[in-house]
Amino acid sequence: MPVSIRVIPCLDVDAGRVVKGVNFENLRDAGDPVELASRYDAEGADELTFLDVSASSGNRETTYDVVRRTAEQVFVPLTVGGGVRSTDDVDRLLRAGADKVGVNTAAIARPELVAEIADRFGSQVLVLSVDARRVTGDTRTESGFEVTTHGGRRGTGIDAVEWASRAAALGAGEILLNSMDADGTTSGFDLEMLARVRAEVSVPLIASGGAGSPAHFVAAARAGADAVLAASVFHFGAMTIAEVKDVMRAEGVDVR
Questions:
Q1: Is 89 assigned a catalytic role?
Q2: Quick one: where is this thing mainly located (predicted)?
Q3: What is the pLDDT of residues 31-86, one digit of tens each?
Q4: Is residue 190 flagged as an active site residue?
Q5: Which of 45, 154, 228, 242 has CA 20 to 30 A from 235's CA?
Q6: How far apart are the C-alpha atoms of 48 and 68, rounded to whole Å?
Q7: Which domains occur in the chain, in start order?
Q8: Catalytic-role residue among 12, 52, 159, 226
């Protein structure tokens, strides 16, 4: 049975404000996260994703406060990621109102964390965020894609497709696949990378990085994405969630 594709606005939150840049640089202010979340909920978002891009210990309480206030205002599932390093971090975010929690760098450093979170809370709360890019220079991976950390600035040499597959086997309930090459460029999702990961994992796959037109969302769905995520095109009014869904429906893509 085909899945209905979810459309998910992503809010990159820095010190309590939504920000957005290109390739994770030159960040500019995009508004108040609670106000934006409420707007997207009203506009028909299927879920919301918050990424704490300044996830230092000093900003933790700000993040919990934003999550609490947002959870009181919206009625769609809320995923929160950034700086999650332990099952206790997951517990605190869930208690603050998150429905799912995104894990990235800490899982790369210690893959057992994926299994620990899945065992304690269930796979359905665990979204593995994979910031991936095409390999360059002397780096080689079998798929041609590698996992990065630190907002795409640091390569790991880890094959992105293999890592997604391994994490799913360890208990990740979803994979958020973010193309660092395409991030913020509005030139389209990395369809080759999506298709490569789709061939190896059966858990839901969220496409991220590069959305610039409704047609890009259609292409991502056809490449195997179960959900499509975008930030700047929604924040700065280039298109609405309703417009994206209308085009997807017109192209024969089943949306919620």
A1: no
A2: cytoplasm
A3: 899 999 999 999 999 999 998 877 655 567 778 999 999 999 999 999 999 889 99
A4: no
A5: 154
A6: 14
A7: 6-250 (3.20.20.70)
A8: 12
